[in-house]
Design brief:
heterodimer, A: 446 residues, 14 helices, 33% helix, elongated, B: 210 residues, alpha+beta, two-stranded antiparallel ribbon
Chain lengths: 446, 210
């Protein structure tokens, strides 16, 4: 089969297939990052945009693709697959879809490699861009975050679809005939999204190694420019520098996290193909070094808001009324002496603030010792620091904590609900007795 | 050479017309646009780079990819806007918007150039009115699914690799491509629409983008 191809055509075709495979993986993974992709059109070619499409290269993804390929090319019975799965914060995971780049034996001997095959591969990548937004996993990936993340796995060899459950659907993205076989690109996606726990003991520990272990960030630059059209072969602008390939990793590539949602201490993933950003990108797209599983735990740990008391700490009425009132036990002492809170002339009538502090019954119940905290003197902006009654601060506090309505005072509310219910029939009897009066009143209103 | 004709049908609510049409037209144009050609000596040319961007719809649970070209987007939006105005706002109705790719064939004076279509995409739109918010919410999702199916249909047709005009020489490029845009180069196209009014009569309007 290959003997009909000229050496140049064979070389070009192998190169096209290789970069087509790499770009295919980039498109799929970037479409599952969870954010919108946007690349600029350039009227003048740069010489490095394969297939005349602006598809950025995330170095980690390129590295994983090359690791999976292990120096081989997709071919007949050698398929390249990208598996997309979902993993929840509880550790359950589910395969969502598998994208397959395959080749069959149907050859198109007459097709022009450097022109038609190249353009059709470009068209197929455009179709892939469109289709990746249409399968169910796209919407899920856009909503990933604290509850779940989307992972990807690249493998080479036999297509594995058993993880997609029953009744998965297949969509064919397209085909490109070549003199050595027909390339097909398709996606099999799960239709049943009911969750089954797939946690396995110890599975988590090994799931995320790989990126941190390897200190070799992808240094390959795709500097071989695509050939000019109309049969004039393009010159290679540079020598691709290959990352040393680790053998036999293709079939067992681990799941990689695909997320741009930053955990608390992460740098947001920003896919970039620029050289200086390569290392940053590779670290942030994957899982940061250190304890990968630990990072995930951080991500999924419920955050406690600032100044929230730990369970067991009493939250007093004072703490509800007054900002930072958890410091009140200590502040109480301070406030006694604080002329802002207790101006001399209003000592006869205790300020509402004072009253509310007293009403709780115990000034000390503001919580455990707050020795670590400093009382923040509540001085409003622009207020004068003098002893006048009803200065701005006092005014603000008084009206921030108005006295309770009589009907809602503790004395009244101390009646239990049971007592209320018991007194109801009696009250109803009284009202019924006076029903004529009520009717007369209503008539006067009409 | 026969012109290939494809028909897509969608039913949408009034406020979804714009986005549904944009989604489908842009999906087709994504596949029918190349980078700008730069002709060199020796009869060769290089091609610019086509960027893409994701667009989220506001009234439909759907996202699509379009070519990164604000100029092209403006032209398509204008056409879709005119189509929607012609359909009327908030009323039931049927209409059809067609995207036709053609080649120009130069004729001698006094005859004008001939426009020979080679691919026509017709999108039939049925506009429905919905009674309440719950129906609208269901419609958002259903129309999103339908548009997804249509995108798959479009891709299936495109990847059958049937007729495409030959790559032109520099002197012929304007007969095959729309070279008016700064950043991308779609095949020559025109957009037309037909509205069927309540009496069942159709009115065709030509929107010439180029």
């Amino acid at each position: 089969m290959d003997s009909d191809l000229s050496p140049q055509d064979k070389k070009d075709l192998d190169k096209f297939i290789k970069f087509f495979a790499l770009k295919t993986v980039q498109v799929i993974v970037q479409a599952r990052l969870g954010e919108k992709v946007c690349t600029r059109s350039l009227s003048s070619p740069t010489g490095s945009d394969w297939f005349n499409l602006a598809i950025k290269d995330i170095p980690e993804v390129t590295h994983e693709s090359k690791k999976a390929l292990a120096g081989q090319l997709p071919g007949i019975e050698r398929s390249m697959c990208v598996e997309i799965s979902l993993k929840t914060s509880e550790g359950d995971s589910m395969e969502l879809e598998t994208w397959c780049l395959e080749m069959n034996e149907k050859c198109d001997k007459d097709i022009k490699v450097s022109y038609t095959v190249y353009n059709r591969m470009s068209l197929l990548l455009k179709s892939l861009l469109a289709i990746t937004r249409v399968t169910p996993a796209y919407k899920l990936s856009r909503k990933q975050g604290h509850d779940y993340v989307i992972l990807y796995r690249i493998y080479f060899g036999e297509v594995q679809l058993t993880g997609l459950g029953e009744a998965f659907q297949t969509v064919r993205v397209g085909v490109v005939g070549t003199p050595i076989g027909t390339i097909t690109l398709s996606c099999a996606y799960r239709t049943n999204l009911a969750f089954m726990s797939t946690r396995a003991p110890g599975e988590d520990e090994g799931a995320y190694n790989g990126v941190e272990d390897s200190q070799e960030v992808c240094t390959t630059s795709f500097s071989t420019s695509p050939p000019s059209q109309m049969g004039v072969p393009g010159k290679e602008g540079g020598v691709p520098q290959q990352v040393p390939v680790q053998p036999c990793h293709g079939a067992q590539a681990e799941h990689r996290r695909v997320s741009s949602c930053p955990p608390a201490d992460h740098v947001p993933a920003t896919p970039s193909s620029s050289g200086e950003d390569a290392e940053t990108s590779s670290r942030s797209v994957g899982v940061k070094s250190g304890s990968p599983w630990g990072v995930l735990e951080t991500t999924f740990t419920r955050k406690v808001g600032a100044f929230v008391n730990k369970p067991g700490t009493q939250v007093t009425t004072a703490s509800l009324d007054l900002p930072f009132a958890a410091f009140a036990p200590r502040a109480y002492d301070l406030e006694e002496n604080d002329p802002m809170v207790q101006p001399p002339e209003s000592s006869a009538t205790s300020s509402p603030l004072q009253g509310s502090l007293h009403s709780q019954g115990s000034g000390e119940s503001g919580g455990p010792a707050q020795d670590d905290f400093v009382m923040v003197d509540f001085k409003p902006a622009f207020s004068k620091d003098d002893l006048l009654p009803m200065d701005l601060g006092t005014f603000y506090r008084e009206f921030q904590n108005p006295p309770q309505l009589t009907s809602l005072t503790i004395d009244v509310s101390s009646q239990s609900m049971a007592e209320d219910l018991d007194s109801l029939p009696e009250k109803l009897a009284v009202y019924e007795k006076n029903i004529d009066e009520f009717d007369a009143f209503v008539d006067t209103l009409q | 050479m026969n012109c290939r004709s494809e028909v897509l049908e969608v039913s949408v609510e009034g406020r979804q017309v714009d986005e549904a049409m944009l989604a489908l037209l842009h999906t087709i144009l994504l596949h029918r646009s190349t980078g700008k050609f730069h002709y060199k000596k020796e009869g060769t040319y290089s091609i610019g780079t086509v960027g893409t961007q994701d667009i989220d719809c506001d009234y439909i649970d759907f996202s699509f990819v379009r070519v990164s070209s604000d100029e092209l987007d403006r032209v398509i939006r204008k056409a879709v806007g005119e189509f929607k105005d012609a359909m009327g706002n908030g009323t039931d109705g049927m209409g059809q918007i067609s995207l036709e790719f053609y080649q120009k064939k130069k004729s001698r004076w006094p005859f004008s150039d001939e426009c020979i279509p080679w691919e026509v995409w017709s999108i039939k739109v049925n506009v429905v009115n919905l009674a309440n918010e719950q129906e609208r919410q269901i419609c958002r999702e259903k129309v999103g699914e339908k548009l997804g199916e249509k995108v798959i249909n479009i891709v299936e047709v495109i990847n059958q690799h049937e007729y495409l005009p030959k790559m032109p020489t520099q002197s012929e490029v304007d007969n095959v491509f729309d070279t008016s845009l700064k950043d991308v180069q779609p095949y020559l196209y025109k957009i037309t629409f037909q509205i069927t009014d309540t009496l069942g009569t159709s009115k065709t309007t030509w929107f010439c983008a180029y």
